[in-house]
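retry 2 of 3: previous attempt timed out while embedding nicotinamide-adenine-dinucleotide. Reduced batch size to 1 and resubmitted. Inputs unchanged:
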Amino acid sequence: MAESRQLRIGLIGFGLWGPHYARILAGTMGGARLAACAEPAAARLAAFERQYPAARAYADYNRLLRDGDVDAVIVATPTSTHREVVERCLKAGVHVLVEKPLAGTVADAEALAALEKEAGRVLMVGHTFLFNSAVRAIKGYIDEGLLGEIRYLYFTRTGLGPIRQDVNALWDLAPHDFSMLRYWLGTDPIDLVARGQSFLKPDTEDVVFVTLSYPDRVLASVHVSWLDPVKVRSVTVVGDRKMVVFDDTHPTEKLRIYDRGADYQPREGGFAEFIAAVRDGDIVIPRLDQREPLREQLEHFVDCIVTGRRPIASADDGVAIVKVLERAQRELRAASSSRLGMA
Ligand SMILES: NC(=O)c1ccc[n+]([C@@H]2O[C@H](COP(=O)([O-])OP(=O)(O)OC[C@H]3O[C@@H](n4cnc5c(N)ncnc54)[C@H](O)[C@@H]3O)[C@@H](O)[C@H]2O)c1
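retry 2 succeeded.
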């Protein structure tokens, strides 16, 4: 594609996560290139300028919007800033890919989704796991019926940090798991219970357990923690025909499909008597596409801008995830005040 037809992308926020976007955009992205960055921390902005001398650099993202000549931006700033930054960007007429979660409250997320429609620009949320080939493969297994009826799913996303200042472990980590649940099950939870504890800093839960109920008796459990000795990124999906385990820390063998199950069968010769029968069959490790999910996500964003297609991780999906987060947060606080009441 000719350089003049490439979309000019601005990056807002060059902290821990922003540099991954810069690397991909400055590399071999066909339809887009890194045009500018805004970052208020002087040392980080200087690091950006050293690494990407061809791009423009600003301390203030308002200047990037005014002078950067960009078609679209990626917002990789802390969650607490998303509402204000995304709103200004949409009002300035640029397309936006904002990191998860869309915003820090349902009211803010809904305001941004409404603004997207008014502005007629793409607003996509960085629910990166929807671009992960293992997650896509599981979606295929569920939709094709390979796993049978889904019974329950559980997610473990634990490790030692990184500990955030502006959100707790729920808002930091669980958006990934809630977005996978929504993508796979195609629906939102009908009920949930959440418990957590703030060990390091008051009112900032480092450890959270959420149990969610979905239609058709499907049960899910999400455990997130910054205070765990071992980095685990694992999901288990149990169907009545097969079961699958997704280990995102494994470099090559991320998925294992177990031909395993159990049910009750009539006892031979018995009257209305049943015995539990366990099926213990093969384990299959499927070959998966090794492409980087973040690159896939960026290419999808560019494609949506060019073609007008609705993003897979749309603003409405972003709102749905923030609704689950806010509900879980209410549960956490209600449980901790009732604990205080009992003390
Ligand atoms: N998809 C993923 O797997 C993933 C992983 C990590 C982080 N994230 C998300 O990315 C976002 C950023 O996370 P991080 O780990 O990079 O945080 P961070 O705190 O390391 O970096 C954020 C950067 O944004 C800058 N910033 C703050 N306000 C700004 C403003 N108004 N304009 C421009 N820059 C501003 C800060 O100075 C900082 O350098 C969060 O929403 C987080 O949830 C996503």
